[in-house]
């Protein structure tokens, strides 16, 4: 059950994309939306006491005034979402932003942000910190996207791992409302014997017990799983991709490539991930 959604806000044009998507999701799920405005404090204040320096006091004052302007611009955007909304401002040092957002997400049901590696702000480490540390499902939306917000078709990239299992569990409310659910058993380099006699039977049975009737497909023969996921999602005109995030370490994915990084770099639709 998803009743409390938090949205990462920065004062950039991407806020409108994130809030529009959050509004449609919240209306569908009858959920509350909380906007989390991040105000990154000047780095220099983290290493010295600003109270004894007129320069640092002025720097802090300018930063606060700029954040106040962002808050003022965000309030009417939040108000448009309806009665059950809230705007919170997080005044934190740059290195603490991810942790602060993750802490807020832990007492909500869902986090919405811009997909890492597609974010024009190039601060993918922030969204990844929420994915790794919040213990909650995260939906990452494409930058500059014009999203209807409807989620009628969902592609689930299934692999019998902890990360994929958590993502599927977090996605249940969306899967229950979708008109088409396709579960792709993604295997690099061809199908393996580990799927057994009835590939996908376990995940299909699990979802059916939650009222989700999904079509199970084998997706094999691809050189990398990320490309396979993106291809299958496009083929069914998916409105949402569901998958585990970072089954391998981030360093390995960065050096050798991996499904998570590939999807986060290229997906044209929102991606629900869990770790």
Short structural summary:
The protein is α/β, with parallel strands linked by helices and 275 residues long. Helices cover 41% and strands 24% of the residues. It folds into two domains: 4-141, Rossmann fold (3-Layer(aba) Sandwich), CATH 3.40.50.620; 153-274, Rossmann fold, CATH 3.40.50.620.
CATH architecture of the largest domain: 3-Layer(aba) Sandwich
Number of domains: 2
**Total number of beta strands:** 10
Question: CATH superfamily of the largest domain, please?
Answer: HUPs
CATH class of the largest domain: Alpha Beta
Mean pLDDT: 87
Structure classification: alpha/beta
Strand order of the largest sheet: 3-2-1-4-5-10-9-6-7-8
Task: Summarize the structure in words.
The structure is a single chain. With 275 residues, this protein is an alpha/beta fold. 41% of the residues lie in helices and 24% in strands. It has helices at residues 14-29, 54-79, 97-106, 124-133, 162-177, 201-208, 225-235, 250-256, 259-266; strands spanning 4-9, 32-40, 85-92, 110-114, 137-141, 153-158, 180-188, 215-222, 240-244, 271-274. It starts with a strand and ends with a strand. 40% of the residues are buried. Residues 251-257 have low confidence and may be disordered.
């Amino acid at each position: 059950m998803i009743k409390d959604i938090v949205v990462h806000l920065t004062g950039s044009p991407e806020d409108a994309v994130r809030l529009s998507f959050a509004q449609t999701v919240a209306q569908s799920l009858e959920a509350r939306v909380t906007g989390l405005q991040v105000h990154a404090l000047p780095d220099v204040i983290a290493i010295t006491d600003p109270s004894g320096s007129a320069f640092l006091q002025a720097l802090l004052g300018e930063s606060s005034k700029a954040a106040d302007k962002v808050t003022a611009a965000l309030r009417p955007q939040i108000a448009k979402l309806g009665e059950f909304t809230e705007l919170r401002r997080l005044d934190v040092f740059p290195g603490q932003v991810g942790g602060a957002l993750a802490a807020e997400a832990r007492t909500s049901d869902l986090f919405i942000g811009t997909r890492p590696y597609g974010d024009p702000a190039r601060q993918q480490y922030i969204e990844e910190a929420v994915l790794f540390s919040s213990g909650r499902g995260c939906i990452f939306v494409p930058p500059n996207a014009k999203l209807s917000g409807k989620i009628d078709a969902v592609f689930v990239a299934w692999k019998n791992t902890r990360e994929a299992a958590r993502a599927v569990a977090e996605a249940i409310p969306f899967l229950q409302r979708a008109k088409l659910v396709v579960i792709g058993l993604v295997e690099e380099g061809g199908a393996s014997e580990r799927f057994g006699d009835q590939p996908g039977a376990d995940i299909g049975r699990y979802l059916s017990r939650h009222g989700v009737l999904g079509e199970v497909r084998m997706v094999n023969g691809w050189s990398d799983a990320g490309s396979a996921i993106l291809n299958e999602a496009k083929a069914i005109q998916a409105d949402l991709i569901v998958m585990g995030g970072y089954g391998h370490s981030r360093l390995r994915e960065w050096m050798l490539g991996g499904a998570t990084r590939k999807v986060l770099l290229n997906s044209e639709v929102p991606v629900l991930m869990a770790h």
